[in-house]
Give the backbone structure.
Amino acid sequence: MLPFLLLALILMFMANLLLGSVDIPVRDVFTILLGGEGEREVWSSILFDSRLPQACTALLAGAAISVSGLILQTLFGNPLAGPEVLGVNSGAGLGVAVVMLLSHGFLAIGNSGLSGHAAILSGAFAGAMLIISVILFLSSFLRNKVFLLIAGVAISYLTSSLISVLNYVATAEGVHSYLIWGMGSFSAVSPEQLPLFASLLSMLLVCSMLMVKPLNAFLLGDLYARNLGVNVKVARFLLLCITGLMTAVVTAYCGPVAFLGLAVPHLARLSMSSGDHRMLLPSTMLVGGCVALLCNILTILPGESGLLPLSAITPLIGAPVIIYVILRDRAL
């Protein structure tokens, strides 16, 4: 199945390069990508300055946020766990809001320097890890899966309230910057920012692949994991740090990407029919990349009229998957 998913990913990536408000012939697209010149000079600029960075961003962001969801579902033993349900996305958003709004909108991913990037990423990571720590603490008391999900939803509402308060006291420029960021977009990463973005997420995805053995052990429970020689506390801490960092990077650059972290792991399980993370983790990356690339194509449907917000597209794909999972397993 992995070769088919890889082929689907390549086709979706090429579709992102071919489709857009400007019609570029297929032959010219391949000519430009191979270092030649198209019939029009502006086509090279469109491909290398817009479509290619956007496609790479969607691929990496989709893979990262989907793997984050898979890790959380495994660690908490809950098929409905995910960065958005447990409030991790909201926590990262709160961190971004604190940095962006209190800086009066001057610090934003799209127009700030290296120090601005570092501040926003640090804020997003701090917010994500704060929520993960709270959820981890609550999970030691709330053994019921539903109660833990309710706690996550409550935390999401709490962070949303804090963000509303920050919006109330912020300047108009800060509110505008945060509003644009909150709509979500894979086009926010410029060609100059792409190397850093790609390096961070690629490194974190490789780190998640190195944690396959502990993830498989956690499927059997903490006691069995210890008997298999896994240092449960260290492994859980490392996995949560990887999850927090991936969620923070994606959220800081692309805005809140909802439902992918929750839905894509289930799509990967359906495609692989296996719970073994040696196969499930790479398939989640591939499916996540495919779904994110599809969402990116859907955002450009208005054409010259503009882009649809990413936050309006991802629920259209993710929500039906979650409804199907709930109906399939009514004992959740």
